[in-house]
Amino acid sequence: MVLGDVVPTEALADEVKGRGGEALSVHMDVTDGRSVAEAVEAAREKFGTVHI
Fold first, then answer.
1. Which of 27, 21, 22, 24 is nearest to 8 (CA)?
2. Which residue, of 33, 35, 44, 50, has the greatest Cβ tally within 10 A?
């Protein structure tokens, strides 16, 4: 799971991980193409693939 928002999502990512899941918290502005590309790249680096 990738959590992206303009507000911090670390607490939710920590909860997911604490329950045995995998999660990545990223700061992302969907109106900024570079921000989205960076979030996708971070997800690829952590998980290998991205499914939307």
1. 27
2. 35
